[in-house]
Design goal:
The protein has 348 residues and is an alpha+beta fold. It has two domains: 2-135 and 161-204, no CATH class; 208-342, no CATH class. The protein is 35% helix and 28% strand. It has helices at 38-49, 71-81, 86-100, 191-200, 208-230, 235-251, 257-265, 268-284, 297-303; strands at residues 2-3, 8-17, 26-27, 58-60, 109-121, 124-134, 138-146, 149-157, 165-170, 179-184, 202-204, 254-256, 292-294, 310-313, 317-320, 328-332, 338-342. Strands 1, 2, 3, 5, 6, 9 and 10 form a seven-stranded antiparallel sheet that branches. A hairpin with a 5-residue loop joins strand 16 (328-332) and strand 17. The chain is globular and about 80 Å long.
Length: 348
């Protein structure tokens, strides 16, 4: 868990990074940002940090999984250990981003490298380095009156919701490639992977968040896609399995796969099919199969959004099923029309 109630901004360096593939320039500033006002600090702190709500942690890696060979790992290490000047290393980061921007769809933007003090991560205070890229400029109007004359000016600037791409590197786990959180608004195409894979070059930390998230993703894929290929399972039974799966994680502190299979899947044939699918899924996604782990409530909350409990009937009805599947029956009329019969006690 990350908390920023005591966090302060110490240094901000800003550069402009174009797309090298498209022949755009890299513009480097000579000095860090001048000291700003308290009001500006408050706005910048919100802009920089409000997007880091989910504790999904990553660490630096490299092609042979040696974090020390990742240039960004070396840049931030030099700053944290005091062996390198912050602004100089922010220039190194900007140049590395520029060299990584080799896809024609990668947008140019403003790069802000920030040094933070007193970030609370898992109840431990530490310093952090933030790398933020803002690619989107939004139009705005500014009204001013001088000597009785009114004027409306139109310009473009950064909207203070959150940056397009961001990474917060904590001064923790240095020997393992540091510990960090990140987000990227880009969600499709090759350009969506460049920030995390080509520029940062990071991998998930194998903690309870990743283990919970990965198992729930695998389970959702099995129930939604695979189970109907092997068994006669109707839509309400699928939804019931999804509900029981997420309920198991919501009501337990620890995951034990044999217990999950017994309580949720129940049928021995489905259990064997599930185990085979789990093995193939892990190999395809380069995951380690873990049969027992602590459950992350944050991961459960995030993944529960994709555990759809909605029965869609043509374009006329959506039925939300949250509990006992025995209260809903499926049938077919003599004329071929399909129907569901629903039992209930109270209407609200």
């Amino acid at each position: 868990m990350l908390l920023f109630d005591q966090t302060s901004i110490d240094i901000v360096s800003i550069h402009q990074v174009g797309n090298k593939y498209n022949g755009e320039d890299l513009s480097i500033s000579k000095h860090p940002l001048a000291t700003s006002s308290n009001e500006m600090d408050t706005m910048l702190k919100k802009y920089f940090l409000q997007g880091f709500a989910t504790p999904e942690f990553y660490q630096f890696t490299s092609s042979n999984e040696d974090a020390s060979l990742n240039p960004l790992n070396q840049f931030v290490s030099d700053v944290f250990t005091g062996n390198g000047n912050f602004h100089t290393n922010s220039v190194h980061i900007a140049k590395h981003l520029y060299e990584s921007s080799r896809h024609p769809m990668i947008k140019a933007g403003d790069l802000l490298v920030v040094y933070f003090s007193k970030v609370r991560a898992n109840n431990e205070l530490c310093d952090a380095i933030g790398i933020f890229k803002s690619e989107t400029k939004n139009p705005f109007l500014k009204i001013q009156i001088e000597q009785g004359n009114a004027e409306i000016l139109c310009d473009k600037g950064i909207q203070l919701d959150k940056p397009d791409k961001a990474c917060l590197i904590l001064n923790q786990n240095e020997n393992d490639g540091f510990k960090m959180v990140l987000f990227d608004k880009t969600n499709k195409g090759e350009e969506a992977t460049f920030f995390k894979e080509m520029f940062l070059n990071v991998r998930h930390i194998k903690d309870e968040f990743m283990q919970t998230k990965s198992f729930l993703q695998m389970t959702q894929a099995y129930i939604s896609q695979q189970i109907t290929e092997e068994f006669e399972v109707n839509k309400t039974e699928q939804i019931d399995l999804l509900n029981r799966s997420i309920d198991y994680f919501k009501t337990h502190d620890n995951f034990v796969q044999t217990e999950f299979e017994q309580d949720v899947l129940m049928d021995e044939n489905i259990v064997q099919s599930f185990q085979k699918f789990n093995k193939n899924y892990a190999e395809a996604h380069d995951l380690e199969i873990v049969n027992a782990f602590d459950i992350s409530l944050a991961a459960v909350k995030k993944q529960s959004r994709v555990f759809k409990s909605i029965l869609k009937l043509d374009r006329n009805f959506h039925i939300y099923i949250h509990g006992n599947k025995d209260l809903i029956e499926h049938g077919v009329e003599k004329d071929g029309r399909k129907f569901y019969k629903i039992y209930y006690e109270q209407e609200s």
